[in-house]
Amino acid sequence: MPFATGTSPFAVQVGEFSSAAVAVRAGCPVRRAWPWPLHRDLALHRLLLEALSRAPAAPVPAPLPSTAEEGRR
Questions:
Q1: What's phi and psi for 57, nearest 5 deg?
Q2: Beta-carbon neighbour count of residue 50 at 10 Å?
Q3: DSSP tag of 36
């Protein structure tokens, strides 16, 4: 998948996967709709979900100052 600097690479991946699922439901062969190894991608997703389930909650960052003057205080 092409790398887009303006969006998350995971958003692109989900979009591509969704497009492939729609194509398969419309009758396109799976290997044509998703030419990458499914077993590899599903294993990767399982690992990511496992890592997310074990990760501590991320702290919420403090809001940025709304003006340059506030930032100098």
A1: -65, 140
A2: 10
A3: S
pLDDT in tens, 11-65: 777 788 889 989 999 999 988 998 888 888 888 878 888 888 888 887 777 787 7
* Helix/strand/coil percentages in the chain, nearest 5: 60, 0, 40
By the 8 A CB rule, do 16 and 4 touch?
no
Which pTM does this prediction carry? 0.49
Give CA separation, 67 vs 28, 61, 62, 63, in Å: 53, 18, 15, 12
Compute how many other C-beta atoms are within 10 angstroms of the C-beta atom of residue 54. 7
d(CA 1, CA 16): 8
